[in-house]
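Project channel, design review

CF: Before we commit to the Streptomyces nigra constructs, I'd like one complete example in the thread so the newer folks can see what an input/output pair looks like. Taking ABC transporter ATP-binding protein.
RD: sounds good, go ahead.
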Amino acid sequence: MTLLSARDLHVTFAGRHGAPPARAVDGVELDIGAGEIVALVGESGCGKTTLARALLGLVRPTSGRVVFDGEEVRPDARALKAYRRRVQLVLQDPTGSLNPRHTVYEAVAEGLRIHGYTGDERAAVAEALSRAGLRPPERFFLRYPHELSGGQRQRVVIAGALVLAPELLVADEPVASLDASVRGEILALLLRLRTELGLSALVVTHDLGLAWNIADRVAVMYLGRIVETGDVEQVLTAPRHPYTRALLSVLPEAPGDPVILSGEPPDPSRVPPGCRFHARCPVLASGEAEQAGVADACRTEDPEILDGGPHAQVACHWARATAPA
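CF: and here is what came back for ABC transporter ATP-binding protein:
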């Protein structure tokens, strides 16, 4: 069962000083199933965070729809407040996410107060902290963020999301600011929450190793659009898009030499014609696309937008031309 869907989603920002508008999200179809963890991966500036914020209603889409549990998410304040109780955000930097003047108790209880919770607030806060791995929870009630380790602060942020009993977490680089020794603990926590609570999650990351460890499915994003998606093992063991291959090649355990992409990602206000990756594509540069008879298509024809479903898909003329029959 699909819990959250993006349908033909576009987010465009006005250009400065007469520049063309920036197409930060440029036609995205994405489904997240109930109880599923999806990793959204790509290099910095590809539109991952903007897409996540649009799914949460924090950025208003220029066009397209976000559908949650069968109903379109409306932009009015009342509808968004009800929606955000069911979909919660976990930010990258726990230090920046927490008010240094608020105790742990106040930080976790804030969501309950915003949404007018009428039950036992103390019990709800204690349960959320306990689920986030801070036990006994009462020991943390009166502590301030500066008195906690980085991992404990991230657990407080997660507890603040869990206290509202959401159905979906959107985690934006949830372990990027943590020490390596703590990252595994936070990832294990997210997996345990999925098992115990049936939570779904969209994990935004540039780290394909993290995606391998936590996700059921992966969506690879480049210049505002998803270019490859599918089961995490299938995509990360047999990538079909040259961009995915390049991202994987720089992992420490990857066989062979790293693939060094030429140049920087294009400006989203000047998306190139044809395949948006073609100017940096090693397959086109090496002549392999020419041999497959698709070089002209790479330069002039935009691959169709992937439909967001759970099956493996790739937006690449060469990958499709060379796929086994």
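RD: helpful, thanks. The chain has 14 helices and eleven strands.
CF: The mean pLDDT is 94.
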